[in-house]
Design brief:
GO terms for molecular function: 4 iron, 4 sulfur cluster binding; catalytic activity; metal ion binding. This is Radical SAM protein. The protein is of the alpha/beta class. Helix content is 34%, strand content 20%. The protein has one domain: Alpha-Beta Barrel (TIM Barrel), CATH 3.20.20. It has eight helices and ten strands. The strands form two sheets. It has an eight-stranded mixed sheet. The chain has a two-stranded parallel sheet with strand order 3-4. Helix 1 runs parallel beside helix 3. It is globular and about 50 Å long. It starts with a strand and ends with a strand. The structure holds iron/sulfur cluster (SF4).
């Protein structure tokens, strides 16, 4: 399979079948903690990076050959080796999956394009959106996520607030914390203010556990993650 991966077990989604919507590695960010290595196509330009018809053909074949695995699947997860919302045909894929399956669909996104109302409409048909928000000041955002220069974190926050208004499914906001980078308690308090405005269903606190491809990226100590969870409130969990 070229575009499907798994089923994989993850801490947050249980067992899910992943779909990759971008060529390696096309992303609007180049996060310090990325497990996939350096972003070689840092872009905000949307395109049909991978042909949706080819993905869908692969998915149909997988369904035909894995009927016994379907009952154990929690989600079909649109994600992959880059930012999936960069693919202009993401809504076509969601609609086609709906026609052949009653499985729940999740989109994992770095949130970078959510300020765009038309893009938000393209993903409203899923059951779960897992957007990221690691920093709330532009300075820290640039340090952690190393975004394309056109992206402003204030626009991302506005996009997330609008998404919450428009989307009827669940939003599980992921916050990736890197030791001595974005885990300062003053920053966490600002993050909490932004998250309160976004009002996600869950806040999933994460910290790099596997060694990222970059040196100098370390996990936050468990005791500090616990303190941060307490600041972020009842919806927060450490994953
Ligand atoms: S947004 Fe995801 S894929 Fe893109 S660089 Fe960050 S961790 Fe990697």
């Amino acid at each position: 399979m070229k575009y499907l991966y798994g089923p994989i077990k993850s801490r947050r989604l249980g067992t899910s079948l992943g779909i990759n919507l971008t060529s390696y590695k096309t992303c609007s960010f180049n996060c310090v903690y990325c497990q996939l290595g350096k972003t070689n196509n840092l872009t905000v330009s949307r395109s049909e990076y991978i042909k949706i018809d080819e993905i869908f053909d692969e998915l149909r074949v997988w369904f035909d050959n894995h009927k016994e695995d379907l009952a154990g699947l929690g989600y079909i997860t649109i994600s992959g080796s880059g930012e999936p919302t960069l693919n202009t045909k993401i809504s076509d894929l969601i609609n086609q999956i709906r026609k052949i399956s009653s499985l729940k669909i999740a989109v994992i996104t770095n949130s970078s394009l959510l300020a765009d109302a038309s893009l938000r409409r393209e993903i409203l048909g899923v059951d779960l959106i897992v957007p990221s928000l690691d920093a709330v000041t532009q300075e820290l955002f640039v340090k952690v996520n190393r975004p394309h220069q056109a992206i402003k974190v204030d626009d991302i926050i506005k996009g997330l607030i609008a998404l919450r208004r428009e989307f009827r499914g669940k939003i599980w906001l992921e916050v990736m914390l890197v030791k001595s980078l974005n885990d300062d308690i003053r920053h966490i308090r600002k993050l909490k203010e932004a998250i309160d405005r976004i009002n996600p269903d869950k806040i999933q606190i994460n910290s790099p556990v596997r060694t990222p491809s970059e040196e100098g990226v370390f996990s936050v100590a468990k005791s500090k993650l616990k303190k941060i969870k307490d600041i972020l409130g009842d919806k927060a969990e450490i994953i």
